[in-house]
Specification:
Layout lengths: L2 H21 L8 H13 L4 H27 L8 H16 L9 H17 L14 H26 L2
Helix pairs in contact: 1-6, 2-3, 2-5, 2-6, 3-4, 3-5, 3-6, 5-6
């Protein structure tokens, strides 16, 4: 079996398992699409141990920074009117998102951005998204982090299975 076919079969089968789990027994505790973003990030970063670490740590960091941005936008501590408040808080947190790339585990800026974007998108587009300060899985930050960890692990598993099939 060619390497590409092995990878396609591996990702298809494990993707089906991930979708079943995320939409079935784990529904409400993970986001199927956030897991797939982490899965793709793992492959984009090289599909090795370093990629697994950088995907999980970077996307989790991005989720936390997005949570800070969401809290700032909600509280508007500077009292900025209209779109000025969100723009300033987003600019400040995105600076933190990227400047952290001088830390080796946060050096994959796309992973940081994926975590930030996934968290902000879920929080802003989901009517029943919980507070970023909730200490349960209604919190968009925690929900994206859990989904990221599992998605990256599924990515790693699919790479290993593809390696076995492609031999």
């Amino acid at each position: 079996m060619s390497k590409l076919t092995a990878l396609a079969v591996s990702i298809a089968v494990l993707g089906g398992v991930w979708a079943f789990l995320a939409l079935g027994p784990l529904a409400g505790n993970v986001l199927v699409w956030a897991g797939f973003i982490a899965w793709g990030c793992y492959f984009a970063l090289g599909a090795d141990s370093a990629a697994l670490q950088k995907t999980i740590v970077g996307m989790a960091y991005g989720a936390v920074i997005a949570g800070i941005a969401l809290a700032l936008v909600g509280a508007n501590p500077l009292g900025l009117a209209g779109a000025a408040g969100p723009a300033v808080y987003i600019a400040a947190t995105v600076f933190l998102l990227v400047i952290a790339a001088n830390i080796p585990l946060l050096s994959a800026v796309p992973a940081n951005v994926y975590g930030y974007a996934a968290t902000a998108a879920y929080a802003l587009q989901t009517a029943n998204a919980g507070s970023v300060s909730a200490m349960n899985l209604t919190n968009p930050v925690l929900l994206v982090i859990v989904s990221t960890i599992l998605g990256a692990i599924f990515g790693m598993l699919s790479a290993k299975v593809a390696g076995m099939l492609g031999k």
